[in-house]
Amino acid sequence: MAYRIVTLPGDGIGPEIMAPTLELLRAVGEFEFEQHLFGGACIDAHGVALTDEVLDACRRADAVLLAAVGGPRWDTTDPGRPRPEQGLLGLRKGLGLYANLRPVKPLPALYDASPLRRERIEGTDLLVVRELTGGIYFGEKTRTETSASDLCSYTTAEIERIARTAFEAARAKVSSVDKANVLETSRLWREVVGALHSREYPHVALEHVLVDNAAMQLVSSPRHFDVILTENMFGDILSDEAAMLTGSIGMLPSASLGGDGPGLFEPVHGSAPDIAGTGAANPLAMFLSAAMLLRHGLGLASESAAVESAVQGALDAGLRTADLGGEAGTADATRAVLEHL
Asked: What is the reported pTM?
């Protein structure tokens, strides 16, 4: 029986990078694809970024593949108006996706595309494990004409389950990132992570790093990190910073996982409305997100490795999209990867 994958092309370049990704997936296996509106496109059609029908379809799927959401036409500071990003938060909450995994491993072919010197990034191979359904993004929000507030809240159970994900993924060390010198939530975070480490994972090295120090170390000595564990907002910021080690945010995939339900797989980059419709979008992060879907979502490790190898082979052979300093467009990149599959 074919696996069922719900596809959410979203906005901007989303549909342009989704189509070749489905072509790539069809080349490695048999899948049923079910497409739905999401984000800004869903706001235009239904007035909300995520409908109950789409959420139900995602719950029934074996995996969910998302391209990108957002754009200036939906930007607003009015708390009463819908925003595309609300769909993403609703999907994470609705599917129980509490763990976001973002691998950062610059490919040798792209060392010179990074804004950092080759000797800084060479050999970097880290994983950011970000808590995805708690913290300031989901806390109670207030707004008046002269003030606003966002509550940052975490429970012991929420911290333990994401810390367990990080310890299970670590090869040697977990760097737990917080702001325990200032924030009460970070002090609880540090206590819970430390207790879990002592109780269940003493064989894995653990260090506690303040978030500002972690941000500096990411650009000064990224090889220092194995697994970075952190809460929602810090993880959002640090993982985008880490993306630049690869040469372009257009190269970074991600997986959002939870309990027994389907995972959500998406590139880290945004919808790039400035290049939408030009055929210039880099689809490689989307391809690598599909590889994570195959491995983490469906357990198809060999098919996942084939996709990753094809992307690396195309880059080794000279493929460079505009964001990587070249001239290849979406179609060129797709053709190159398919030829190396």
From this structure: 0.89
